[in-house]
Design a protein that fits this description.
Shape: elongated
Catalytic activity: GTP + H2O = GDP + phosphate + H(+)
Distance between the termini: 11 Å
Number of strands: 8
Strand order of the largest sheet: 3-2-4-1-5-6-7-8
Subcellular location: Cytoplasm
Bound molecules: guanosine-5'-diphosphate
Structural class: alpha/beta
Organism: Raineyella fluvialis
Strand content: 5-15%
Domain SRP54-type proteins GTP-binding: 271-284
Family: Belongs to the GTP-binding SRP family. SRP54 subfamily.
Order of helices and strands: HHHHEHEHEHEHEHEHEEH
């Protein structure tokens, strides 16, 4: 994960080893290298600029430290700034005081929504909840079946339209699922919605209609981290068309660069709440900005 960035930053810090103190020239050279490393990682340009400036200001104002040498000082500053652009604090799910809590998943086809539904359900169960998965993706013929398979694997019930009733109305399915959850005492409802391969007005409208119908406590925008900065453009389109409260990054295991992860929080203003890093149900966790920053720094 983020191998190139990791290597580049490590090389930058190595150049500072053995220095007694940080000169302005050292700070400038380091800032330049960090800038290149972030641009190569496909981080959004405005995020790069803000990041590099913050590092420069902090490095210039850093007190001469007895405890940290210049290289360690820069690592500390970069760590703080990485944590900051990744969101600073961990953002937990806001559970409703009046169950069920409704979580809606939105994103492009192939982003990993259905897989995520299973992962989220597994995580919710572990946290002591009783989740219900809802198949409101009626666009793809196989989507309902796929969610049912995922639900079975995760050991959670899936609410889906009855076979033979035609394609069905996803908004109605989503609405009915809330009644079902209230009746059968599921305390969290996870609504999987339809995506398309690209931004599509009809898809957006459907997701917006589902949102209006079920009034979710959390709308999670699910995005494939491997698409780099395109993730930011897609996020902006979903923000405008549907609106969302948090981001789930998927396929981090296959992301060699890191541009999506490092740009999306700053550009959208929305927190990254969860991360997926594999195809198995357990390849998933709450997103902790500080831990991710430390991982990048190795
Ligand atoms: P959806 O169209 O948004 O519902 O996406 P799917 O859940 O069907 O996922 C699309 C593909 O991505 C599937 O082949 C998944 O197995 C795969 N996938 C989902 N999440 C991850 C992940 O975190 N890592 C990897 N490597 N593959 C994933």
């Amino acid at each position: 994960m983020f191998d190139t960035l990791q290597d580049r930053l490590a090389a930058t810090f190595k150049n500072l080893r053995g220095k007694g103190r940080l000169t302005d020239a050292d700070v400038d050279a380091t800032a330049r290298e960090i800038r290149i490393a972030l641009l190569e990682a496909d981080v959004n340009l405005s995020v790069v600029k803000e990041f590099v400036n913050a590092v420069k200001v902090k490095a210039r104002n850093a007190e001469v430290s007895q405890a940290l040498n210049p290289s360690q000082q820069i690592v500390k500053i970069v760590n703080e700034e990485l944590t900051e652009i990744l969101g600073g604090q961990t953002r937990n799910v806001r559970f409703s005081k009046q169950p069920p809590t409704v979580i809606m998943l939105a994103g492009l086809q192939g982003a990993g929504k259905t897989t995520l539904a299973g992962k989220l359900a597994t995580w919710l169960k572990r946290e002591g909840h009783t989740p219900l998965l809802v198949a409101a993706d009626l666009q793809r013929p196989n989507a309902v079946k796929q969610l049912q398979v995922v639900g079975e694997r995760a050991g959670v019930h899936v609410y889906a339209p009855q076979p033979g009733n035609g394609i069905g109305d996803p908004v109605q399915v989503a609405r009915d699922s809330i009644t079902e959850a209230e009746r059968k005492l599921y305390d969290v409802v996870v609504v999987d919605t339809a995506g398309r391969l690209g931004i599509d007005a009809e898809m957006m409208q459907q997701a917006a209609d589902i949102r209006a119908a079920v009034q979710p406590d959390e709308v999670l925008f699910v995005v494939d981290a491997m698409i780099g900065q395109d993730a930011v453009n897609t996020a902006n389109a979903f923000q405008e068309g549907v609106g969302f409260d948090g981001v789930v990054l998927t396929k981090l295991d296959g992301d060699a660069r890191g541009g999506a992860a490092l740009s999306i929080r700053k550009v959208t203003g929305k927190p990254i709440m969860f991360a997926s890093n594999g195809e198995k149900l357990e390849d998933f966790d709450v997103f902790h900005p500080d831990r991710m920053a430390s991982r990048i720094l190795g």
